[in-house]
Fold this sequence. Notes:
It is a single chain. 17% of the residues lie in helices and 35% in strands. The protein has 271 residues and is an alpha+beta fold. Helix 1 runs antiparallel to helix 2. It is rod-shaped and about 90 Å long. The two termini are 69 Å apart.
Amino acid sequence: xxxxxxxxxxxxxxxxxxxAVLGSGNDADVVLHxxxxxxxxxxxxxxxxxxxxxxxxxxxxxTVNGKxxxxxxEVKPGDLVTFAGVRVRIVAVEKAASAPPVVKAREVDVDDxxxxxxxxxxxxxxxxxxxxxxFGKVFPLQGTVVIGRQTECEIPxxxxxxxxxxxxxxxxxxxxxxEDLGSSNGTYVNDKRITRQLMKAGDELRLxxxxxxxxxxxxxxxxxxxxxxxAAAASASAARTGGSKTGLxxxxxxxxxxxxxxxxxxxxxxx
Length: 271
């Protein structure tokens, strides 16, 4: 239950269960400074959505819906009560209903047996560390992320070479927009120092000596399988030569060169 004062003599008052004293006295629960208001002018005994109003002194002027109050009377939401010249409207207090939990939409699929399974959406781009403390680690990129030394960053890098908030990466329809955040040692894309630059899949991001490759989903698997596929193609080409010694020799050379290249790339951290 709440008391509203249409003429602004007092701010709205929300009443709890129990007795509330209205009057001009400093010890009153609701203090009203107006002509004709006694120190303890009226009592409101609140119980649930109703209240009983009574007078400690019959001489105190109180009306309920325009009728003078002489004996205790029940008041309810919607009633208009006047204490001397102060008008008060009784209103109900509606408790806000608790909002239902928000369920985030997720991509779902259904098996043949009717069971529903959740399929996680893959990020469009990932960063793969190819040097330093991030070597071999993969960082999915979604929305906007900050790389830096602070643990609050989305991609924290515990290295003194990296500023606390070094660079910001934002996913766009055309690629990853990289912006240097005033770092001490600079941000580089393909070994070129930048302030703001759009990166494409396959580009290299460098924060001083910490290097990353920007990859699209599936690109890593393509890199790993590229050498075996080329070797298989070379072997098939040799077979088509009719088993000649020259064709076989060239096939062996091609396979050896590609294998050495794969080992070298692995050592250098390319994949």
